[in-house]
Amino acid sequence: MCNLFTLAQPVDSITETFEDIEVPDLPTPARYSIRPGEPVATILHDGRPKLTFTQWGLVPSWAKDPSIGQRLTNARGETVKEKPSFKAAFHHHRCLILADGFYEFHPVHGQPWRQPVYFRMQSQQPFAFAGLWEHWQSDNGSELITSTIITTASNQLVQPVHHRMPVILPRSAYALWLDPAVNRPEELEPFLTPFASDVMESFDVSPRIDRSSIDDRSCIAPIPSSKSHQLGLFGED
Questions:
Q1: Dihedral angle computed from the Cα positions of residues 60, 64, 70 and 75, in that order, rounded to the nearest 10 degrees
Q2: Catalytic residue among 2, 95, 134, 219
Q3: Whole-prediction pTM value?
Q4: Which residue of 63, 134, 150, 175 pairs with 167 in a disulfide if CB–CB is 3.0 to 4.6 A?
C-alpha cells in the first residue's frame, strides 16, 4: 500500500519529458508528508498533458457520497481493470502522480509504535507513480478531481517492510500511460510490476512522521537502523 509519500524537489525533470505539457503558475511547496485527502501533483491527459493538483482518494463519477474517496487511496494492480470503482478510470483516466520518495511501516517487537522506513531513488530524483483520476460532480454543482495510486507486489528492497508497494513507472512509459487512445489491458498491465530494487535505497526515519502536523525535512533524516525489519505482521491494503 502507499499512504504517505514526499515531493520535496522541483518537478522539472519529469515535466520536461513532455514537449507540450501545460504547467500552471501555481506554488509547489516542498512536501515531506503527503497524506490521503490532500492535494497531490498530478499529470493527466485532458486534451493534452497538463500538470495539476488532484485530491488523493478516488471518488468515482457515479458515487453518491464523496467520502468514498477515503477508502480508495490505493488500487490493486491485479484487479484494477475489473473493480467497479477503478475500471472506467483505468481505461480512460490514467495519470502520473509525482513523488520523490514514500514511506512504509513495520511493527517493532514489544512497542506500540511502528518503525517508518523511507524509500527513494539512489539518484534522489523525482519519479511518477501510476495513478488514476476521476471527475466528480455533486447534485448542487460542486466538483472534485480526485486520484488514486496503483499498487503491486513489493520488490526485494520493500518486501522485508511491506508486501505491497506503489507502481513506479519508467520514464519511457509516461506517454503511453497517459494516452487516452491506449485502453487495452494487455498494453497496460505489463507496467503494473515492481520497480527495480537495485536503483532504489531505503533507511529508517523518525516515528514522528506518524504525526500529521510534522511536514519538514526532518521527516526524511536517517536514523540508526532498527533490527526489526524482518517482523512479518503486515496488514492488507
A1: -30
A2: 2
A3: 0.92
A4: 150
